[in-house]
Every structure is written in structure tokens, then in C-alpha cells.
Write a structure and sequence with these properties.
Distance between the termini: 38 Å
Radius of gyration: 23 Å
Order of helices and strands: HHHHHHHHHHHHHHHHHHHH
Shape: globular
Strand content: under 5%
Structural class: mainly alpha
Number of strands: 0
Largest sheet: none
Number of helices: 20
Helix content: over 70%
């Protein structure tokens, strides 16, 4: 059930990503409005995921799991009926709220059902494979639907999947709790939601217009103030949504930073690459989806044995190597153009997917194991929250970079194409106001081909900048893993003794106590 839950939670990400060009054409949206299609889904995930984890610990994870599935079905139904961008945002937001409920509860249910850390790694590996499988089938589903039907039907599959999962979970799923004095932390929830939402809003609107406009400056300032207030509130709270003590574990801190930085680059990369396939290479949705499919499929192939390798290879090295394998193809894709062949793109996407597969499982397992067992729900929620904050910022940051760079380079490419004078000024003004996609709605006359060529070249300039930024982010994440996931010598010997106790027994400690010790002492953690 946990695997089905995470599949439902992540399915909308890539189905929507490859459908963005079709949505833009159908609803006549600007680039900034298009960025909000994905962020309307990801923001509630980031803002409410930790609250969902607390609510599940206190009131029962089964209830939160069921509520999450219901919200996913309801949100998909709203999006399915959307005839304007605002209704689509509302449906995406409701589905995102459901996904926020599913992600921490699925990991916490696994942690409760499989208390042994070594055995749990296999099931977390299966959970990660289900996550990647959702990312894999999304482009294919969207491609098939968009070749025959309207874009809105991409939301249909989530509805029966969610309802069937609810029906099956009702009699079969065992409820679990871990209250330990925890309660809903409203000051923390409100400040976190305000901080994340206003920061992402400021980045999107600043990239679409100017970062010096009063509303953008106000949003960014409010976001920073809200996040500072969140830290203060959590320090003073008797039952914090996020116990800041978990950051004393270098392992948890490392995985949180890696999740944030990696998904910022990767989700932003999917957003940018979908525009490249649709607007530069003029591919249909199914063809674009088949190319994007290579990343999650390769990640599944690489991620399947990753859970078993964790017992032989330190998570530090698996994560670092995976991030380097992500950074390499991103840099290698900076020479893409409108005529780059499928084979030339394919090997880079496959290598990137292998890197993603090596990162996902050890990153998730290390985060859950980095805290005492009774805080597993909080740790899984916090890890997913950082991942979703990165996912929300990805399209916002890279979308802003893409738009700014593309519009700045457009006049030069128009001049090279022979489009000058009043028409060139009108095209640039339209692009600044509504994004590059808005130019397609202009009456371009006999210069249409030249203008479209200039638009493609401008988009390529923006995409190359985004690829470099995403690669740099992956390298920064790798540095965090190398520095923070180091295992101290004292802890190495402690871990060895713990493993020996768990395997051979000890008159002074049970296997259960040994498990608790190994869970409480993750890589990089030091006792105070």
C-alpha cells in the first residue's frame, strides 16, 4: 500500500511536465502562469508535509493515508474539469495537499511495519522504485492521451487509482501511531507555509517581470521573515512540527540539503527540457515523453539494487557518485540544438537517470535512520518537505532564468534572422509581457519561419544557462554529501559492535535494543 500511495503522489509530476506546451496553447498562458501549474501542486506538498507527518503520528497514519488518497482523487477531478488556468491551479493544489499527506505516512508505515534497519532498506528501495515508476509512466500516459484527446484527460488515471487504493487499504492496512507527546504546531505550520509560498511567488513573479517591483520585494522579504519566525517558533514549541534537534545529526542535515538541492535542479530540469522538446524540436507529446521516460527508467534499473548495496557501500559514496553522474550529463547537454538526434540525447538522459537511482534510495533510507525510531515519521516528513521545497523552487528558479536569458538574447537572434524595425520591437515587447509562447499568437506574416527560428535559438540560450546552473547544484549537493556524511572513527566501532550484537546476540542487550542503537546513531551523528 505504501508503494501504491507514493505512486499516486508522484504520478502528476511528469504527466503535467510533458503536457505544459499543450496546456499553454489551450489556455493561452504566460511562462509565469505555466510555472504555477507545477508549483500549485508542489507548494502544498512542501508547506503541509510536515504537518501531515505530525497528524499521522498523533491521530493515526492510516487516517492520514486515506485522507491523502481522497484529496488526490478530488484534486484530479477538479483539474479534469478545468477550463481556465485558475481552476487548474486549484485542482493541482488540492492534489498536492493529498500528496503531502501520502509521502510521510507511507514511509512511516514502512518504518513501523519493518523496524529492523537492514530489512527496512529493502522496502525503502521498493518505495523509491515506486516513486521512480510514477515518474516513468507519466510521460507515456500523457503522450498517448494528448495524441488522441484533450490535455485535461491526463488527470483521469489518478482518480480510480486513488479510490481503489482507499478501498483496499480500509480492511488491510494496520493503523499505527507514535504520539510521544506530539501535537499540531500551528505557529510552525503557518510560518512555514507563508515562508515557502511567498519565496516561490517572489522568484516566479520576479523572473517573469522584475525583482525590483514592490510586490516581488515584499514577497521575498515576507518569505525570509516567515522562515526566521518558523525557526524561532520551533525552538520555543513544546511539541514542534520539526524538532530542530534532528539537525544535530550530520547525516540528517546532509540528506536534507542533498534532497533540497538535487530536486531543485532536477525538477527544474524536467520543466526546461519539456519546453525544449515542445518548442525547439517541435516534438509531439508522446515523442517528448518517450525521451523523458529514459531518466526514470534508468533510475529504476539503478535504484533496484541500491537498497542491497547500502549494506556494502557507504551511503556517502553512493550519493556522491550518483550526483556526479547527474552533473556530467547536464553539462554534456549544453551543446544541444534544434537538430540534435534522439541517440545523442538518449545516452545523456540514461546516465543522468542512473545517477538519480543511486541517490534516491540511500538518501531516503539515511534520513529515516538518522534519528531515533520514534521520530521516524518526523524525519521522513522533513526529508520529503526539503525535497518538495526544492521541487517547488526548481521550475520557479530555472523558469525565471530561462525566461530572462531567452528574452535578453531574442533581439540579437531576430536581427540575425533578418527581422528588424517595428516588428522586432513588437515581438520583443510581447515576449517580455507574456513569455516566448505568446509570440506564436501574433500575426507574423511572411517572417514566421525566421521568427520561430529566432525564438528557438533564444530558448536554447536560456536552456543552456539552466543546465549549467542545475549541474552546479548537483556538484554542490555532492560536496555536502562528502563533507557531512563522513563517519567518525568512534562511531564506526560503535556501529560494528551494534551489528555484531544484532547478529550474534549479547546477554546484556537484545536485538531490539541493538536496532535502536543503530537507528539512533546514523552516519555523521555525534553524541553531545
Amino acid at each position: 500500500m505504501a508503494c501504491l500511495g507514493v505512486f499516486v503522489a508522484y504520478l502528476p509530476i511528469t504527466t503535467v511536465a510533458v503536457s505544459l506546451p499543450a496546456i499553454q496553447r489551450a489556455l493561452h498562458t504566460s511562462t509565469a502562469q505555466l510555472s504555477w501549474v507545477q508549483d500549485a501542486f508542489v507548494l502544498p506538498m512542501a508547506a503541509f508535509i510536515m504537518t501531515a507527518g505530525v497528524f499521522g503520528d498523533v491521530h493515526g497514519r492510516k487516517k492520514v493515508f486515506q485522507a491523502g488518497l481522497f484529496c488526490c482523487a478530488a484534486g484530479s477531478a477538479v483539474a479534469l474539469c478545468a477550463h481556465n488556468i485558475q481552476t487548474l491551479w486549484a485542482g493541482q493544489a488540492l492534489a498536492g495537499l493529498g500528496s503531502a499527506a501520502l509521502l510521510p505516512t507511507t514511509l512511516a508505515l514502512i518504518s513501523h511495519a519493518v523496524p529492523d534497519f537492514r530489512e527496512r532498506g529493502k522496502f525503502i528501495g521498493m518505495w523509491a522504485v515506486a516513486l521512480l515508476a510514477a515518474l516513468a509512466v507519466g510521460p507515456v500516459i500523457a503522450g498517448v492521451i494528448l495524441d488522441h484527446y484533450s490535455w485535461r484527460w491526463i488527470y483521469l488515471l489518478s482518480i480510480p487509482l486513488s479510490l481503489v487504493a482507499m478501498a483496499v487499504a480500509a480492511p488491510l492496512l494496520t493503523d499505527s501511531r507514535a504520539p510521544h507527546g506530539r501535537k499540531l504546531d500551528w505557529p510552525g505550520q503557518i510560518t512555514a507555509a507563508v515562508g515557502v509560498t511567498t519565496l516561490v511567488y517572489g522568484v516566479i513573479e520576479g523572473g517573469a517581470g522584475s525583482f525590483t517591483t514592490p510586490r516581488v520585494v515584499a514577497a521575498l522579504v515576507l518569505g525570509v521573515v516567515a522562515l526566521v519566525a518558523f525557526v524561532v517558533a520551533e525552538k520555543r514549541s513544546a511539541g514542534p512540527m520539526l524538532d530542530l534537534a534532528v539537525f544535530r545529526s550530520a547525516a540528517f542535515t546532509a540528506t536534507a540539503l542533498v534532497a533540497l538541492i538535487t530536486f531543485l535542479g532536477l525538477i527544474g530540469f524536467f520543466f526546461v527540457l519539456s519546453l525544449y522538446f515542445g518548442m525547439v524540436q517541435q516534438l509531439g507529446t508522446l515523442e517528448a515523453g518517450a525521451r523523458l521516460l529514459l531518466v526514470p527508467v534508468a533510475a529504476i534499473v539503478a535504484g533496484a539494487p541500491a537498497g542491497r548495496l547500502m549494506h556494502r557501500v557507504q551511503a556517502r559514496w553512493m550519493i556522491t557518485v550518483g550526483l556526479l553522474l547527474i552533473a556530467g550529463p547536464l553539462l554534456a547537454m549544453t551543446n544541444l540544438d534544434a537538430h540534435t538526434s534522439y541517440g545523442s540525447i538518449a545516452w545523456r538522459l540514461i546516465v543522468l537517470g542512473i545517477g538519480l537511482g543511486l541517490v534516491t534510495t540511500p538518501m531516503t533510507a539515511t534520513a529515516v535512520a538518522a534519528v531515533p525510531h520514534h521520530l521516524a515519521g518526523m524525519a521522513s516528513a522533513a526529508s520529503n518537505a526539503f525535497r518538495q521545497v526544492g521541487g517547488a523552487l526548481g521550475p520557479a528558479v530555472l523558469g525565471a532564468l530561462l525566461s530572462t536569458r531567452a528574452v535578453d538574447s531574442l533581439p540579437g537572434h531576430l536581427a540575425d534572422a533578418g527581422v528588424t524595425g517595428t516588428q522586432a520591437h513588437a515581438i520583443v515587447a510581447t515576449a517580455k509581457e507574456g513569455g516566448l509562447g505568446a509570440v506564436a499568437g501574433m500575426n507574423l506574416g511572411s517572417t514566421a519561419n525566421q521568427v520561430y527560428g529566432a525564438l528557438g535559438d533564444s530558448l536554447l540560450d536560456g536552456m543552456r544557462l539552466c543546465l549549467v546552473v542545475a549541474a552546479i547544484l548537483a556538484l554542490i549537493a555532492a560536496a555536502c554529501a562528502v563533507v557531512l556524511l563522513r563517519r567518525p572513527k568512534q562511531q564506526t566501532s560503535t556501529a560494528a559492535r551494534t551489528a555484531d550484537v544484532a547478529q550474534h546476540g549479547n546477554p546484556d542487550a537484545t536485538a531490539e535494543n541493538a536496532q535502536a542503537a543503530s537507528t539512533a546513531l546514523p552516519f555523521g551523528h555525534r553524541r553531545s
